[in-house]
Amino acid sequence: MAKRLGMVIDTVRCQGCHTCCMACKIENNLPDDNWWNRVVMVDGGEMDTPVGTYPNVSMTYRTMACQHCDNPACVKACPVGATYKRKEDGIIVQDYDICIGCRTCMVACPYNVRIFNWKVPEYRINFDVGDPDVPKKQKSIVEKCTFCVQRVSKDLKPACIDVCLGRARFFGDFNDPDSEVSKLLSTRRHYQLLPELGTKPSIYFLV
Amino acid sequence: MSAAKNEVPNKRFTIGIIISAAFVIMGIACWVAQLTQGLHLTNLDNNNTWGLYIVGFVLFTGVAAGSLLFASSAWLFNGLAQFRPYTRIASFVGVIGSVIAAGLFIIVDIGNPSRIWYMITRFNFTSPIIWDTVILGSYVIIGIIFTRRLIQVSKGVTEEKSVKGIAIVAFIAGLLVTVTSFIFCIQVARPFWNNPVQPLSFLFAAVVVALALLLLVFAILRTKKYIAMSDELLNKMARVIAIFLAAELLVVLSEVALGLYAQSGEDVQLIHWLISGDGAVYFWVEIAAFALGMVLLLNRRTAFCMAGAGASFFAVLMVKYNLLQTQLLNPSISYPGLNGRSTYAGTAGNIAAGAYLPSWIEVSLSIGIVSLGVLLVLLGLKQLRLGDTVQQSPPQVDVQIQAKV
Fold first, then answer.
1. What's the gap in Å between the CA of A170 and the closest CA on chain B?
2. Is residue B288 situated within a structural domain?
3. DSSP string, A41-102
4. CB-CB under 8 Å, A73 with B189
5. Do A193 and B183 touch (CB under 8 A)?
6. Phi/psi at B350 (nearest 5 deg)?
7. Other CB atoms within 10 Å distance of the CB of residue A17
8. Residue B182, min C-alpha distance to chain A (Å)
9. Domain range spanning residue B315?
């Protein structure tokens, strides 16, 4: 049976340390100012800002990357099929060599997780980092989180999972009832982003 | 009475051709800069990802569609038969000039125009971009056939009856401008666009911009004696523009009213940004253009009608401009992150930076594209002799001389 890969992120444990974002940036050799995974504040107004009046304050971080939806708006919108959902595991990939840079997928994505290379990719570190199997970045194309497809092909987890200091990130196959992610969903309360839009994201947040 | 001259003195065309060619060269230079250095020369970013170029595409697709509607209506409805002599110009200017402009606006907006042939070899039929390409492509074909048929009719080579068939096709194609709204209104990610009034709004907008541009073209050509056109016909066009402008204003005001009523929710945030937040200047300029346009168009004087046509075109431009920036600068998920324009900002991104204003490169390139349309139109008017049929009717002088003899 085909896999339905996805992530579960525990917002109780997430401390907003940005380590997962850094791991992604290094693994995928991202150019300057390109981030595929981001830490955002829920209702805090600014980064690292709590909500409420002291002493009744709370602070919730969320990490956002491509939701690898089961009903992806971006795949439907791409005029040349540069972005598509893999049948074997449900990862939504981007083919840089086909992308014409029309940015329709960015308009279609409700989560704003896709980024466009507005300039020729620049790198502060003057040598390549990360996995050599990662495709080279190009100017004027769209990129986004790929669930580290180069690692998943070798049966490894994405780079952001095991580096998490708070052990808040989990990855696995939702079609397998014995997987860690499936068990977490059956035992903990969880939510998804913008479920009413019908995109069926593959990322769940535990509360 | 002397028939209107079919040719404007060559000097007038030449000046226009030289000026527009100069702007075209400026546009090409801007495009080369953009191609080599990247689209960061525009003021677009990962949130506000579509801007002036897409507005230009929407407007000129509308001009093409509206011109097809105007030209075909004159041949399909007897009440509009007085406009038949001018349909060659409408078909050429409106359709061919605009399709070039619309197509070019897309070419300069996409990151890799050299790969555009993938849209033919590996097109995705669920993509509204492909639907737009089909529609625009059909406008080119229909426009060429229609213009050619009309020229043949005016030369007496074919009968007027043969126009009916292509006119029906052109009329339906013009109505299909509603399909070009789908790229916006089918997006579940964009609630401000995701409503069924958009196809209608695009249809109203198409009629307004096409008739406004054609009114300006006819009025200018009339003063240069390329065509003869009565004040009554120009005023009729002006009144139709005013009606469709009012319809578009109704759409805009309805959206605002709906957003204001709710007091909370996603629509409210958008509407408040638009009418009293960072987008306010742009919104109230749009409303002023609507008001000015309608008042001027209902005046009988030609100069006022021309100014009204210009204001109407600008009003619709602002409608599309605000449609884009209001939604793109107010995404559904707006959690803050680090400040700044980098993608590591939250999904709220650089909303703190305010509304969208195009960069000089964007404006110059857009002017260059419009100038190319103007250049092609001038060349066409000069070479193809698209003036009205009065000149083509057989001269009556010979008959009188023979009768005397």
1. 22
2. yes
3. ESSSSSTT--EEETTEEE--EEEE-----SS-HHHHH-TT--EEE-TTT--EEE-TTT----
4. yes
5. no
6. -100, 40
7. 15
8. 11
9. 15-389
B279 inside domain: yes
Does residue B405 lie within any of the structural domains? no
Q: What is the pLDDT of residues B53-71, one digit of tens each?
A: 999 999 999 999 999 999 9
Name the class of domain A5-206.
alpha beta
**Contact status, residue B70 vs residue B220, Cβ threshold 8 Å:** no
Those of residues 107-146 in A touching chain B at CB distance below 8 A are: 107-112, 114-120, 139-141
- For B250-260, give one letter per residue: b (16+ CB within 10 A) or e: ebbeebbeebe
Question: Which pLDDT score, from 0 to 100, does residue B348 have?
Answer: 44
Q: What is the 3-state secondary structure (H, E, C) of A118-169?
A: CCCCCCCCCCCCCCCCCCCCCCCCEECCCCCHHHHCCCCCCHHHHCCCCCCE
Lowest mean pLDDT among A58-72, B45-59, B376-390: B376-390
- The residue among B186, B202, B222, B174 whose CA lies nearest residue B66 is B174
Whether B333 sits inside 8 A of A44 (CB atoms) is no
CATH number of the domain at B377, please: 1.20.1630.10
Chain A residue numbers touching B117 (CB-CB < 8 A): none
Contact B180, B202 (CB under 8 A): yes
CB pairs under 8 A, 24+ apart, for A148-156?
A148/A24, A148/A27, A148/A28, A149/A86, A149/A91, A149/A93, A151/A27, A152/A5, A152/A89, A152/A91
pLDDT at B339: 53
Which of helix, strand or coil describes residue B227?
coil
- Decide: B285 and B318 in contact? Cβ < 8 Å: yes
CB < 8 Å from A in window 193-222 of B: none
Q: What is the pLDDT of residue B393?
A: 40
Nearest to A77 among B46, B118, B127 (CB): B127
Eight-class DSSP state of A173 = E
Instruction: Please state, in angstroms and rounded to a whole number, the distance separating the CA atoms of residues A46 and A40.
Output: 9
User: Which of A99-108, B42-51, B394-403 has maximum average pLDDT?
Assistant: A99-108
Contacts 24+ apart (CB under 8 A), B302-308: B302/B219, B302/B231, B302/B234, B305/B215, B305/B219, B305/B234, B305/B235, B305/B237, B305/B238, B306/B215, B306/B216, B306/B219, B308/B238, B308/B241, B308/B242
CA dihedral sign, ordered B261, B264, B266, B272: positive
> Do A124 and A32 meet the contact criterion of CB atoms below 8 Å apart?
yes
pTM for the structure as a whole? 0.91
Q: Three-state SS for B345?
A: strand
For residue A64, give the nearest of B109, B342, B347 by CB distance: B347
Residue B311, CA distances (Å) to A77, B29, B32, B105, B293 in order: 34, 30, 32, 22, 5
Considering the domain boundaries, does residue B398 fall inside one?
no
Which residues in chain A have their CB less than 8 angstroms from residue B42's CB? 118
**Number of separate domains in chain B:** 1
Q: What is the DSSP letter of B226?
A: S
